[in-house]
Design brief:
By secondary structure, the protein is of the alpha/beta class. It has ten helices and ten strands. The chain is globular, with a radius of gyration of 18 Å.
Length: 263
């Protein structure tokens, strides 16, 4: 389990990824395969490079070395047309929703539609916006509200509606339940699993929330020492012999999450 399991037709394939900030090495010869149609939970200690990895896959950060393929396209050296295909087939939810503060929810959800489908008639675009807002469990009057008028949980759902605007195949989530109370976090987890199954999404999920891992993740990848230290099901990963893994998966919070799942 110290190396990624090779999968047929992976939705993400990374080999030899190198990321550095000056003398600080974040990733060294990192390999990762993500299966199509799975929810992959990505965990690791502070500074392990979880968000840097996500930004590298999205093409938002240029790594110092390695190869990244997403949805069959080369992220680092591919054509501009290939990059546009990745953008259209990918949705992203950053922490706290990352909504544009000066735009209401409907205008936020409209941003990717206007960028990639400028030819859409206004009435059809409005209908799609309403559909996405309802899809994530928000009342329709939320469309006219600014992000500052929403609770933390509603902002995350609005951000998810924007991430789903283009009906993506691949969805990236960065700490989606951070800052939510346990009830709100559990509801968001259930929403995500329902949407993933209904839409056939492949989900790359950065989280520190053990409840989320136990509730919805098909596999877990552990980042440590600049690489994917272990990847597999929760049962496989939590038995990996490493100090951080033992502390994370066998501490009191992990036991509570396991009991909650059994209950």
């Amino acid at each position: 389990m110290s190396a990624p399991t090779a999968v047929h037709d992976p939705v993400i394939r990374i080999r030899g990824l190198e990321n550095r900030f000056g003398a600080q090495v974040v990733h060294r010869a990192l390999d990762l395969d993500m299966q199509r149609g799975e929810i992959l939970g990505v965990v690791g200690g502070s500074g392990s490079g979880k968000s840097v990895l996500m930004r590298s896959i999205l093409g938002l950060r240029r790594p110092q070395g390695g190869r990244i393929e997403a949805l069959g396209h080369d992220v680092l050296t591919g054509s501009e047309a290939g990059h546009r295909v990745i953008e259209r087939r990918t949705g992203v939810l950053f922490q706290d929703g990352a909504l544009f503060s000066s735009l209401n929810v409907a205008e936020n959800v409209a941003v990717p539609l206007k960028e990639h489908h400028r030819e859409l008639p206004g009435a059809l675009r409005d209908a799609l916006i309403e559909l996405k807002v309802r899809l994530v469990g928000l009342p329709i009057d939320t469309c006219m509200k600014l992000p500052s008028q929403l609770s933390g949980g509603m902002r995350k759902r609005a951000g998810l509606a924007r991430a789903l605007a283009l009906d993506p195949e691949l969805l990236f989530l960065d700490e989606p339940t951070a800052g939510l109370d346990p009830i709100g976090a559990a509801a968001f987890d259930q929403l995500l699993r329902t949407l993933q199954q209904a839409m056939g999404l492949s989900v790359f999920l950065i989280t520190h929330d053990l409840d989320t891992l136990y509730a919805i993740c098909d596999r877990v990848a552990v980042l440590a020492e600049g690489k994917v230290l272990a990847i597999g099901t929760l049962e496989q990963v939590q038995d990996y012999d490493h100090p951080w893994v033992r502390e994370y998966f066998h501490g009191p919070r992990a036991r509570a999450a396991q009991m909650a799942k059994r209950g």
